[in-house]
Amino acid sequence: MCQTCGCAISPGNAHLTVSQEGARGPVIEVLQDLLAANDRVAIHNREHFNEHGVLAINLMSSPGAGKTALLEATIVALRGRYRIAVIEGDLETDNDAARIRAHGVEAVQITTGTACHLDAHLVHRALHALPLAGLDLLFIENVGNLVCPASFDLGQHRNVVLLCVTEGDDKPAKYPVMFRAADLVALSKSDLLDVFEDFDPERAAGALRALGGETPMLRTAARRAPEIGAWLAWLDRELAARRIPAHAPRHASAATVAV
Amino acid sequence: MRGTSVHELSVCQALLAQVSEIAADRGARRVIRITIEVGPLCGVEPILLANAFNVARTGSCAADAALAIETSAVRVRCRTCGAESDVAPNRLLCAACGGYRTQVIAGDELRLRRVELQATEAPLARSA
Lengths: 259, 128
Description:
The complex is a heterodimer of chains A (about 260) and B (about 130). Helix content of chain A is about 30%, strand content about 20%. The longest helix of chain A is centred in the N-terminal third of the chain and has 16 residues, at about 35-50. Chain A contains eight helices and eight strands; from the N terminus they run βαβαβαβαββααβαβα. In chain A, α7 (about 200-210) links the parallel β7 (about 185-190) and β8. A seven-stranded parallel sheet of chain A has the order 4-3-5-2-6-7-8, with helices on both faces. With about 130 residues, chain B is an alpha+beta fold. Chain B has one domain: hypothetical protein PF0899 fold. Chain B contains two helices and six strands, in the order αβαβββββ. Chain B has helices spanning about 5-25, 45-55, and strands at about 30-40, 65-70, 75-80, 85, 100-105, 110-115. The longest helix of chain B has 19 residues, at about 5-25. The chains are: A alpha/beta (about 260), B alpha+beta (about 130). β1 (about 25-35) of chain A pairs antiparallel with β6 of chain B.
């Protein structure tokens, strides 16, 4: 058991984690978001993206759901149409950035060490190594994790969450904070649905719908014979919406769940 | 944030930065009690936050402060029928009409609510 992540806490010793009260003094009412400092940098990042007309997408999922594979297939499909760059977040290695660079696309690797998520400061630092001028699309591939990344605004315009069909179709019910943050959910590796019969796309859509709102869901298959048409069409619509000067809403407008 | 292992520790560092600023603004050297609001839908676990607080506060003005964590029920307002209802964090549907077009109106807070400072010998003027 480690001393930092809280796994040593049990209902029996939890009371020891809060110290005792001392003498009374002035009481200051604050009511400020705890992540206000992160959110300020996120707004700053978003201003950078807007200034350069770049659509920024924060891609999140469990480890191994196929984020990098989807990006590779996307880069191949959009070659010659959009200029793309990628920020990769991983605890260690620049393997994913190398995979992206092999397709001739610029990639900046953030290695977070032991941190379980990207935050706005880390992304801001990465932006210094990434010229935004001339870009259409910036993908930020977050650390594979369905918990922590949901709490940190990076300055993205849209959150995309991959739900891999090799996972349970009840993931939206188990990770409501993450799936509630999604502007789009992609059922990744959907070519495996025939093999992984336990995964019911209708059940996944129902669990997502139970979180309120109208988050659209689509399917992607990035390997062998890639089928990412619905995903590319969604990107096209989002890019077109960014080019209209009106302020775009944070959540995608009414869209149907097509699974 | 490099070197932190869970996001609760990152949140704690942000909390301590805010609290230290408030204490410094008012010339207080010690913080007695910190009250925060942590809703079930904010993505932060209160018990992990309390534990991370014990690690992160060492050496700060809140080194021996108490941390009080208030939590609230998740509450939604229906965009279809207008009803408000308390719901489970993973079932944000209107309890009245069953509709899914809902808006969370409580339960996603992650906020510093109040800070209680140790009285100074010559109290400074309170500012809002």
